[in-house]
Amino acid sequence: MTSRYGHLAAAAATLFALAVGGGTPAAQAATTGPCDIYAAGGTPCVAAHSTTRALYGTYNGPLYQVKRSSDSAVRDIGVLSAGGAADAAAQDSFCAGTRCLVTVLYDQSGRGNHLTQAPPGTWPGPAPGGWDNLADATAAPITVGGHKAYGVFIAPGTGYRNNKTNGVATGDQPEGIYAVVDGVHYNNWCCFDYGNAQTTNKADAPAIMETVYFGADRQWGYGDGTGPWVMADLEWGLFSGVNAGHNPNPSVNHRFVTAVVKGEPNHWAIRSGNAQSGGLSTVFDGPRPNGYHPMKKQGAILLGIGGDNSVSGAGTFYEGVLTAGYPSNATEETVQANITAAGYAPPGGGNPQQGVQIAGSGSGRCVEVPNGSTANGTQVQLADCRSVDAQRWTYTADRKLQVYGTKCLDATGQGTANGTRVIIWDCHGQANQQWTVGSNGTITGVQSGLCLDADGGGTAAGTKIILWPCHGGANQQWTLRG
């Protein structure tokens, strides 16, 4: 009988042969997927979620489901071929001219651990009945292996959950978790999580969760610098290492991030890496924090929220799994090689394009929706740059500048006159919501030909943003930055 190590070596050899032999990422993905590698390592996936690609080499089923607002019809979005990338064109066709939401993230493992709209917990969500919002299906465009795909854009208030799972670790059972997330879309609130959670939706004890967290929250644990960090949500605390508060844990500066948390009796680890290249770094590997041995995991799965339905976090999710058993570092390195070979990239290939700030060269301040307003017609203005969703913009392939996932930068009233106010409005794709980000630092309205302008050459916080004829001044120079 071939040993688990023999299977793992064979998987690694396949990856290496493709890397040096000219195989494309799409061909590699069709040969083996992360869950094939985990299975070869003796730690099979018990849940596997992705809106971007198949996570098994032979998977040919649906990745996720979308629902369109025009008629409430739903459609499953599958893959281009077995083991391949998502069929984003099917979504684009189905959702043309209307808004779509992601209603289901299908579990590829065959265990039925699908993720759907999260119910209320200690904290209610913003949707009717206290449920969480669903993600805008078009808010996070990327490419995978050169193919267009969409991530799950988690704005505050958005969340997914499954409290009745099959095969997920409970109690002190060992498990591994990884997620590929967007490295420039995050905030400093709780909690953009993915992983194992309590079934009660309440923070009623420590040690009842084990999830990946990505963000810059400092309320419980934090790392070096200003963040963001890969940490673990174990309930009653985010942990950057063994201690509450600070632990050595580097701030992450990758466009796409592989985030790993794994645990077994009185032993756990945090690992992270660049999802576009290179291997994983071990951030922490050691004993459980005081009060967290033994663990009392309950086996629910969540995405985008805390265990008690804390809904203030933000981020973008592309793929992730939970395993049975504690994966070896060698297995995880082979999975990381598979992820980097998949070819994650922003739309159009530029870095960064998603979750970025629009920083004024003349003022050093950022374009913000004042007071975090989501009301149509709110005029944007300059504000001190900070990590808040009201300053996080996504520049899409069709040249929209989106905020909150559902609102777009808009020339009010389709105006083309000097001084037209620049506002936010529900995204509709018309020319007054399309912008050209120039290599010379300007942002120009497609309809008007006018430049985004800090009114009157102002640099103070509160300066309103308008349209004005392009003149190359510092108040019309902008940088999109993570």
UniProtKB/TrEMBL annotation:
Disulfide bonds join C35-C45, C95-C100, C190-C191. Pfam families: ArabFuran-catal, Ricin_B_lectin. PROSITE patterns: RICIN_B_LECTIN (PS50231), TAT (PS51318). CDD domains: beta-trefoil_Ricin_XLN-like. SUPFAM superfamilies: Concanavalin A-like lectins/glucanases (SSF49899), Ricin B-like lectins (SSF50370). Gene3D superfamilies: 2.60.120.200, 2.80.10.50. One of its GO terms (biological process) is arabinose metabolic process. Keywords: Disulfide bond, Signal. This is Alpha-L-arabinofuranosidase. Residues 354-481 form the Ricin B lectin domain. Transmembrane segments: none annotated. Residues 1-29 form the signal peptide. The keyword Flavoprotein does not apply. The keyword Kinase does not apply. InterPro entries: A-L-arabinofuranosidase_B_cat, ABFB, ConA-like_dom_sf, Ricin_B-like_lectins, Ricin_B_lectin, TAT_signal. GO terms for molecular function: alpha-L-arabinofuranosidase activity.
